[in-house]
Amino acid sequence: MKEKLQQIRERAIAEIQNSDGLEKLGEVRNTILGKKGELTAVLKGMKDVPPEERPKVGQWVNETREAIESILAEQTKKLEAEALRLRYEAEKIDVTMPAVKPAKGNLHPITQVRNQLTDIFASMGFEIYEGTEIETDYYNFTALNTPQDHPARDMQDTFYLSPEFLLRTQTSAGQIHVMEAKKPPIKIISPGKVFRSDDDATHSPMFTQMEGLVVDKGITLCDLKGMLDEFVKKIFGKNVTTRLRPSYFPFTEPSVEVDVSCFQCGGKGCKLCKGTGWIEVLGAGVVNNKVLEGCGVDTDVYSGFAFGIGIERIAMLKYGINNIKLLFESDLRVLNQIDD
Ligand code: DAH
To answer: Ligand 1: distance of its center to the CA of 203 in Å?
Structure first.
């Protein structure tokens, strides 16, 4: 019996020491100490041992068991430490490696320009009024001194939703809402989408405008010019100046087309300014008294100026984009290049 136990013990120790993983070790434990294990079988055979020898044999069995368990515990510890070491090795972070830069998104160019313009006007004390994209014919045209049959309606090919409702063709509609809701002094900008049935390299059926309106005592064209000079310096650079050319809009009198001196060639003449040294950027004027009076503003006391900026136009000029479609195709090769 002693010999048998000795054999079991030696084999168990060898197997335990040869186990190279915790799973394997579990199997070895089972085949020796488990319910159907070899040592357990010896214990079950105790009934055949003469009673006087039982204490002795019992002691041998216990000794064998303890010896095996102690080796098992030792090996388990060793293998667990090794498993942990391997895990640490696999999860090791080299803090000196250059970081993987997460891909960073950026705002759409139109949003960027819109935000830049908003910041500039906000710094000059303008408040923001966001109108609605669906307007009535009255706010989009009639109240802006463009009644039915007015030839100026032809300038803006309109998407009508019904005889009364339409997709606004200009953010100018916001002027009327603001003047109806608020007494002067008024100093607002109104950014937003506008819609016209128009489609070529520089026109899109949907585009973005930013309207401006100032109404107060003693406002003149000089105030408009001064404000625009400040504005174009902030958006195109400090050497840029403006030039006003006579124009026509029904809601302003006088009306002007505003040019900036070419920020690319400094006014000498280049491809961008088509050799003229000037680039047209927006429409503006002194608010027509008919518009003010229609909104209940006393024109003996108050006057105002207004302007309308095409945001796509500014973005195209600023970023050298020659086709408006590039701004609406969501091509990341284009959009990734524009991050101001
Ligand atoms: N609403 C005009 C357009 O869409 C732009 C404009 C011109 C707005 C002159 C104004 C302005 O406020 O005074 O063509």
So the answer is: 16
Q: Which of 251, 287, 289 to mutate to test the pocket of ligand 1 (most atoms within 8 A of CB)?
A: 251
Q: Check residue 121 and report its DSSP letter.
A: H
pLDDT tens for each residue of 187-229: 999 999 999 998 988 899 999 999 999 999 999 999 999 999 9
The secondary structure of 289-331 as a DSSP string is HHHHHHTT--TTTEEEEEEEEEHHHHHHHHHT---GGGGTS--
Q: pLDDT band at residue 68, thresholds of 50, 70 and 90?
A: confident
Residues 158, 205: Cα–Cα separation, whole Å: 10
Give CA separation, 251 vs 148, 150, 163, 175, 283, in Å: 14, 12, 22, 10, 11
Choose which residue among 190, 215, 249 to substitute to test ligand 1 binding: the one with the highest number of ligand atoms within 8 A of its C-beta. Answer: 249
Task: Encode pLDDT of 243-302 as tens digits.
Answer: 999 999 999 999 999 999 999 899 999 988 999 999 999 999 999 999 999 999 999 999
Give the Cα-Cα-Cα angle 68, 74, 80 (nearest 5 degrees): 130
Q: Which pLDDT score, from 0 to 100, does residue 154 have? A: 77
| Cα–ligand 1 centroid distance for 190 (angstroms) | 12
Residues contacting ligand 1 via CB (< 6 Å): 170, 172, 211, 249, 252, 283-285, 306-308
What is the Å distance from ligand 1's center to 297 Cα?
20
Count CB-CB contacts under 10 A for residue 279: 19
CA 12 / ligand 1 centre spacing (Å): 95
